[in-house]
Amino acid sequence: MTDTARTHHDITTRDQYPMMGRDRDQYAIIGRDQYQGYGQDYSKSRQIAKAATAVTAGGSLLVLSSLTLVGTVIALIVATPLLVIFSPILVPALITVALLITGFLSSGGFGIAAITVFSWIYKYATGEHPKGSDKLDSARMKLGSKAQDMKDRAHYYGQQHTGGEHVNTDYRNTDRDRTRGTT
What we know:
By secondary structure, this protein is mainly alpha-helical. Helices cover about 80% and strands about 0% of the residues. The chain has two domains: about 10-130, no CATH class; about 135-183, no CATH class. The chain has helices at about 10-15, 25-30, 30-125, 135-160, 175-180. The protein is elongated and about 120 Å long.
């Protein structure tokens, strides 16, 4: 049985060898001293290839960015006089277009809102109970009870100030209401 225990040095140096078969026995034939020199040449050639690739890619991107900058400057140089010449026409035209678009969008939004409200009112009036109708009924009942309460108080104070006979037909305690004041 062969010795399968490998050291860290064996594993790291084995990965640098360009040979297809990576068996430890094959490396023993060449000799480590001879192969390490070849591995250094191999790593230098890889570094040179990486540097050449990086320079080529970086250079081409630098050329493209400079061309984009030059094109932008030329377009700005050509467009600036045209914008200055036509600005008395373009600025009001842009303002008009913006106002027209805003008007159409807002009128469409208000139209959709109106259709929604009319649909809700129709459903409520025909007896269907759309969403929120219970809150509307509750608010209507509260408002009705407050209106009735104000009517009763106005009637009570009106009779009290005119000197008329006060007839207590209300089921509530009027003495308590008198001491409490108006709410």
